[in-house]
């Protein structure tokens, strides 16, 4: 009750985060899924996400809540820096809830694309990483690109031009081919495949 009444000043937000940390140490995830009210959730969302993004995502997508949170309010409330939560929440909306909103499909495709490009950049600047770390990075990039490629192929609701604008200068050549095919530009698809496969 005290938390619900708090205004979102920096000092009080710090207090909320400290209280959340204590709660997370003493309460199992099931407690939060069942008992976290909508008002209380909006007050401590940042605190939960700072400590455990997986738990924050579990709370967002919990089916134990009597009334589901508004997807618009959730997206608006999420910290744009916490990309992982955005991705997982949009994935849940689209794959588990059957959301057909083109805006969410485009947002999800863009987030996956940006993550794939960032992973590529980090891998190319790996510096003094050992073989095990390099192999782990390669597996992560492969998994991320596979998820992106499958989504780009499966969904007809995102804007391919928006996604193409983001990855145009990247190394994601297969993703570009998928997007051009979605746009009906088969000649460019053949050019990309010929260039990258040596055909």
Automatic annotation (TrEMBL):
- Cellular component aspect of the GO annotation: cytoplasm; membrane
Q: In which domain of life is the source organism classified?
A: Eukaryota
- InterPro entries in the record: Clathrin_H-chain/VPS_repeat, Vam6/VPS39/TRAP1
- Annotated membrane-spanning segments are none
The alphabetized list of GO BP terms reads: autophagy; endosomal vesicle fusion; intracellular protein transport
Spans of CHCR repeats, please give.
58-199
**What is the protein name given in its UniProt record?**
Nucleoporin Nup133/Nup155-like C-terminal domain-containing protein
Ranked from the top, the taxonomy reads: Eukaryota, Viridiplantae, Streptophyta, Embryophyta, Tracheophyta
């Amino acid at each position: 009750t005290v938390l619900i009444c708090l205004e979102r000043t920096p000092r009080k937000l710090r207090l909320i985060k400290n209280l959340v940390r204590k709660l997370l140490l003493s309460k199992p995830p099931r407690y939060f899924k069942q008992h976290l009210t909508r008002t209380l959730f909006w007050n401590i969302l940042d605190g939960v996400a700072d400590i455990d993004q997986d738990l924050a995502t579990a709370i967002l997508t919990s089916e134990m809540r009597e009334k589901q949170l508004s997807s618009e309010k959730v997206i608006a409330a999420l910290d744009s820096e916490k990309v992982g939560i955005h991705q997982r929440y949009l994935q849940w909306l689209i794959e588990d809830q059957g959301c057909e909103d083109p805006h969410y499909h485009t947002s999800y495709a863009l987030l996956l694309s940006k993550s794939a490009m960032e992973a590529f950049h980090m891998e190319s600047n790996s510096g003094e990483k050992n073989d095990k770390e390099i192999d782990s990075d390669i597996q992560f990039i492969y998994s991320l690109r596979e998820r992106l490629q499958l989504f780009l192929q499966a969904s007809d609701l995102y804007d391919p031009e928006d996604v193409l604008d983001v990855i145009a200068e990247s190394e994601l050549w297969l993703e570009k081919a998928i997007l051009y095919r979605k746009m009906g530009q088969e000649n460019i698809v053949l050019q990309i495949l010929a260039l990258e496969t040596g055909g």
